[in-house]
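User: Can you predict the 3D structure of AB hydrolase-1 domain-containing protein? Sequence below.
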Amino acid sequence: MEEIQHKYVDVRGLKLHVAEIGTGPVVVFLHGFPEIWYSWRHQMVAAAKSGFRAIAPDYRGYGLSEQPAEPEKATFRDLVFLVGKDLGARPVYHFALLHPDRVSGVITLGVPFLLTGPEAFPSDQLPKGFYMLRWQANSSFEESRFSGGYLHFQRFHLAHTLLQEPGRAEKDFGRFDIKTVLKNIYILFSGSDLPAAREDQEIMDLVDPSTPLPPWFTEEDLDIYAALYEKSGFRTPLQVPYRAWLEDYGVTELKVDAPALLIMGEKDYALKFGNLAEYISGGVVKQYVPNLEVTYLPEGSHFVQEQFPDQVNSLILAFLNKHK
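Assistant: Sure. Here are the predicted structure tokens for AB hydrolase-1 domain-containing protein:
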């Protein structure tokens, strides 16, 4: 990846790491979790070769970017860009809602436009040991439930209702080195089943230590991820997306008219999240994003851009060239 350049930009007093390559119309790529700018390496090079300037930041508190002063208060409203995967879909669509005149197209992978807030979270359709529920309660949860305002109260209410233990994710992750945590999450999220544990079991324990990495994700890739997360840790990544998930968009007009593309792997476990599969295939999502195209990759997992880079590159470039 020697062609990709790296620099730091000052944003609200924090130095954010940004990777970029190429010249031309700008395409900004937003990673998911447990990813980092590096997850877009294949797409960035392809976009640059096709006449675009590809930019991929590390979010605040991720990888080489500086930590916010109070990670537990970080929210989705701090992230605004164009192409998003997983949690990156939230800031992409939030930006499109707030600044429709500045968006010529939206691409998301693994996650479509979703309604937000506690009433939109399908807790009654999820197993109690589902990883997102386990990771939503933090170690300072009891102290913040009343002092942090209504949003903190909502988080507390959800976690309390589902009997989630504050700080359980930190304790779970803390039993292993960062490389092992990332390996386990990549293996879990590459499957087609919702990652959920028994009450007497932790999420990390769902992975047998002898399980190999997916064939498209090398030990070298894992080493690069681990080196980046060694710097940032998981404090902010657990806050955003998981502990900020109940936050709403803060707008009343929930409609994005810009051209949009959703790329989903047919074996992505996310399709079993509540009624997400029907929400997409039944066209409900088009009530909010009427100009949405949906493309499925038959063997695709949650990491389609790394699993099938050539196919994803072709889809992204075709969309960009059509709407530039």
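The domain at 5-323 is CATH 3.40.50.1820 (Rossmann fold). The longest strand covers residues 14-21.
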